[in-house]
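re: the backbone from monday

yeah here it is again, tokenized this time
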């Protein structure tokens, strides 16, 4: 009979230890719940502190390549993208008269240029084609800096 009482006491002690651990776990969970509730209440009362800004205002932005050279520049004048050697490849700028100007560059020469009313395509050997709509429709083809074809013949020279 004495053996049964000892076994019962051991079981009761084990159960009391488990109850004590459960009480501690409940308190930890209760404190974590209060902390989370306080955090959400703080976020609700201070939405600007918790929210991310919707706009970012800067005077300019320069993104550098692996060697430290500027690869992308964004300023008030426009956007410029350069290659690894520092040569300008893409430029999107705002002209002084308020019009836009787009240049897509090839090796050491602009390959494609667009301005209001004028589009031109150039290779590196000074051959170019230009199409204009302002002041009137015009087409001009150049080779080695000389006009080869111009339509209409009395149209002003295109750049």
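seq for it, each position gets an aa:
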């Amino acid at each position: 009979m004495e053996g049964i009482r000892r076994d019962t006491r051991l079981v009761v002690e084990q159960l009391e230890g488990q109850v004590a651990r459960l009480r501690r776990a409940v308190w930890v969970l209760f404190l974590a719940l209060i902390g989370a509730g306080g955090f959400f209440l703080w976020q609700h009362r201070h939405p600007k502190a918790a929210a991310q800004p919707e706009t970012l205002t800067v005077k300019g932005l320069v993104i550098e390549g692996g060697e430290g050279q500027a690869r992308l520049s964004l300023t008030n004048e426009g956007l410029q993208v350069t290659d690894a050697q520092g040569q300008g490849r893409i430029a999107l700028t705002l002209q002084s008269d308020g019009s836009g100007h787009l240049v897509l560059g090839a090796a050491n020469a602009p390959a494609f240029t667009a301005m209001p009313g004028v589009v031109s395509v150039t290779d590196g050997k000074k051959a170019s084609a230009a199409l204009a709509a302002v002041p009137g429709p015009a087409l001009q083809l150049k080779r080695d800096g000389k006009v080869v074809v111009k339509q209409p013949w009395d149209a002003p020279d295109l750049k």
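The chain has a mean pLDDT of 82. The first helix runs from residue 2 to 45.
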